[in-house]
Amino acid sequence: MQKIRAILVDDEESARDVLQNLLLRFCPEVELIGKCESVPEAADLIKKLNPDLVFLDIEMPNYAGYEIVNFFDEINFEMIFVTAYDTYAIRAFEVSAIDYLLKPIDIERLKKSVDRVQKVVAKNSQTDKLSLLKSTMETNVVKKIAVTEKGQQFILALENVIAIEAQESYCTIHTADKKYMVSKNLKHFETILENNSDFIRTHKSWIINRKHLLHYSKSNFTIALTNSIMAKLSKYKKTEFEDSIIS
Q1: Residue 28 — φ and ψ, nearest 5°?
Q2: Predicted confidence (pLDDT) at residue 227 exceeds the cutoff of 90
């Protein structure tokens, strides 16, 4: 099950706690990654964490929940508005909210709203995969890969991948921005990247991107890469490695 990463926005702490407890008990597919008490605070957190879903109380001081749209050029997250007044429902849908909930929150209605979000998130994820597949088939060169970490899917540009490091049945993908730990072995990535000359298998535990190569040691059998990453070089791969970096 793909997790829905969510942020909860309400100016009342008790209301935040109630909704958080309901999500924990009845919506295990929702991973609450942040709570806010105002719209400006929520806008900052959304830009930082990039959630799938935002629960927004409508009536808050200074800014109403639906005014969140004024803080973004593009809305790339789903919204569920929470209100004590049914008259706000029309305004909720005017700003493309996926649903709204009336206080006190009905558990079955909450489950249905979350289920609706999950279907949209899954559909968007599949769209990303199909787009990636289409571009790969058209060029016959893999430029991006889709990886899943902790139930969340990411599309990574290969030019930003510095190295892939094997650790038993897992691999750590080192990128310019962060590390991703995925439940795939190194052979999986070697097969995907076999037509990409930038990536070289240098060791039983390492694939490196030669565009991120800084220098290597013939005596210590180590390879220095950008972001202070130190990869290993097998003595059996040394000749092949040296041929590949000068070609």
Answers
A1: -65, -15
A2: yes
How is residue 24 annotated by DSSP? H
Helix (H, G, I), strand (E, B), or coil: what is residue 191? helix
CA neighbor of 163 nearest in space, from 174, 147, 171: 174
Q: Cα–Cα–Cα angle for 133, 136, 141, nearest 5°?
A: 155
For the stretch 53-90, pLDDT in tens is 999 998 898 988 888 888 887 778 889 989 887 666 65
Please give the model's pTM, rounded to 2 decimal places: 0.53
A 10 A CB-CB count for 180 gives 19
CB atoms inside a 10 Å sphere around CB 20: 17
Contact call for residues 40 and 65 (beta carbons, < 8 A): no
- Mean of pLDDT over the chain: 85
How many whole angstroms separate alpha carbon 105 and alpha carbon 87? 16
> What is the chain's alpha carbon radius of gyration, rounded to the nearest angstrom?
23
Which residues lie across from 35 on neighbouring strands?
A: 8
The β-bridge partners of 48 are none
Burial class from Cβ neighbours inside 10 Å (0-12, 13-18, 19+) for residue 79 reads: buried
Residues listed for the chain: 247
Is there a contact between 153 and 128 (Cβ–Cβ < 8 Å)? yes
Q: Where are the beta strands (DSSP E) in the chain?
A: 4-9, 30-36, 53-57, 78-83, 99-102, 144-149, 152-157, 161-167, 170-175, 179-182, 199-203, 206-209, 213-217, 222-225, 229-232
Greatest distance between any 2 Cα atoms in the chain: 74
